[in-house]
Amino acid sequence: MVLREIFLLSVAMTAVTVNACPSACKCTVSLYGEMVVSCGGMGLTEIPEDIPRRAVYLILKDNNITKVTSYSFKGLKNLQGIDLSNNKISHISSAALRHQGHLDDIDLSMNKLTSVSQKLFDFPISSAKTQGRRFFVYLANNPWGCDCRMAWLAEELASGSKTFGDRHLDCTTPASLAGLSLSEVPPTSFVCSGRAIIPNGDGIVATPEEPTSFPVAYRVAVVFGCITGLVTILLLVLTAMLYQKRRIKLGSKYELRWNKHPEFV
């Protein structure tokens, strides 16, 4: 993201300045026709609403933005890069990227995020796969809460995913896991006590889709244990039935012998 930003800004030196641009931003069109909207370091507390729809790269780093809503990028379907690094974002709607079918990367590093929904990245990831592109997410240096809400990301990292950077993804809470990297936390430790509350970027308080969600490996182990237990019970029942059948058979044989030769009994 940084290298591409430098390249685009250097190309933009000979580009056309766009008049219809948010007052706190600078909009330029590169020689390749790609619009760069740069609003970095302007003290913004929210994402501007009047960003041109032809924007391809949106730079919002080094501001005081606190949330990303489901309508923050409404109509911006051409975005290929979003830089939201070094803000104060603590809440981000799981629907914030639902229209970003051309997005190559988004930088959410150095914010205040304690959790993020897997659903947030579903559409950009599926679109990238369909188009044969790579989609990358920067999540470093956030105060992550390593509970059930982040189990999905730990699973992604364990599977060798190339979508999420694995550097500087450290737990802040709970205290027992503080300082550990997300990839170092045992799968069974990603738990929530009671019903975890997730305030999203739209100001709506919601519960996680799976309040007690565990990684696939853990769920498979539980299912395997249940199946093993059932098989063991069935074997015990079958053994008891065979034993009872054998007792009945021996009893019948003994009774028959007594009837024929009572003097030997």
From TrEMBL:
* SMART domains documented for this protein: LRR_TYP, LRRCT, LRRNT
Gene3D superfamilies, per the entry: Ribonuclease Inhibitor
Identify one Gene Ontology CC term for this UniProt entry. Answer: plasma membrane
Signal peptide as annotated in the record: 1-20
What residue stretches are annotated with the LRRNT domain? 20-57
Q: Which segments cross the bilayer?
A: 216-243
Domain named LRRCT is located at: 142-193
Pfam families according to UniProt = LRR_8
Stated membrane topology is: Single-pass membrane protein
Q: Which GO terms describe its molecular function?
A: signaling receptor activity
Taxonomically, the superkingdom here is: Eukaryota
Q: Name one GO biological process term.
A: signal transduction
Entry keyword rRNA-binding: no
**Keyword terms of this UniProt record:** Glycoprotein, Leucine-rich repeat, Membrane, Repeat, Signal, Transmembrane, Transmembrane helix
Q: Where in the cell is it found?
A: Membrane
What is the protein name for this chain?
LRRC3B protein
- Gene coding for it: LRRC3B
